[in-house]
Amino acid sequence: MSVQLSAPADLPAAFRRAVAGLTGVDLRPEVVVSELPAPQRLAPYAVALHASVVRTGEELADGRLVVLHDPAGQETWEGMTRCVAYVQAAVDLEIASDPLLPGVGWAWLIEALEAAGAEHVAAGGTVTRTTSERFGALIEHPTAAEVEIRASWSPVGDDLVPHLMAFGELMCAAAGLPPVPPGVVPLPSTRRKRTTTASTRHR
Q1: pLDDT by 10s per residue, the chain, length 203
Q2: 23, 65, 85, 55: which is closest to 172 by C-alpha?
Q3: Can you give the residue ranges of every domain in the chain?
Q4: Is 0.90 topped by the overall pTM?
């Protein structure tokens, strides 16, 4: 899907050009993107995107990418710009119980950044797996499990396109779609039959 993103005139010139460069970027057809209102308190300037991975009418993953910019820089960022990503996707209970899942989830991000050529510094984040037991009126629904990835990193240089591409691939990996860049390890979707666990796919 082609990304459409506004670049407000009040953005600093270099950041405005970087944001404008994201418009027209083609992500995988399963990735549906829309612009969100930018957060106001995290940095002097910001843009935000919502993304979902949809196949045959079914949403497989949901996420957000926020790009923050502070012309004065921030020490923890090691730069003036920071990408903040959030991704959530359903997984099988078998996958959620695998002790290697958090490491695999983090590897999706790092490998997606590397495959996209998204040079960066100061990457950090968390990978959380949750299970929900349903009771009462919801007892007929199966127990649900999800993986949630929260991550941030600082782009090196002004080109944000590789970082957006990496975010799209991270979404697809969490959704269980086969990777396009070599080396990205996908997690099987709950909608498809599995014959291996996350640990065997990580090797």
Answers
A1: 667 777 777 899 999 999 999 998 999 999 999 999 989 899 999 999 999 999 998 999 999 999 999 999 999 999 999 999 999 998 887 887 788 989 999 999 999 999 999 999 999 999 999 887 777 776 776 677 899 999 999 999 999 999 999 999 999 999 999 876 454 544 544 443 333 334 334 43
A2: 55
A3: 13-202
A4: no
5 neighbors 25 (Cβ within 8 angstroms): no
**Nearest Cα to 67, choosing from 89, 100, 44, 99?**
44
Whether residue 129 contacts residue 82, with contact meaning beta carbons closer than 8 Å, is answered with no
Distance from C-alpha of 171 to C-alpha of 113, rounded to nearest angstrom:
12
Give CA separation, 7 vs 25, 43, 67, 70, in Å: 14, 16, 12, 16
Closest of 37, 46, 49 to residue 86, by C-alpha: 49
For 64-78, b where at least 16 C-beta lie within 10 A, e where not — what string?
bbbbbbbeeeeeebe
Order across the sheet with 144-155: list the strands: 31-36, 45-55, 58-74, 79-91, 144-155, 120-132
Total number of residues shown for the chain: 203
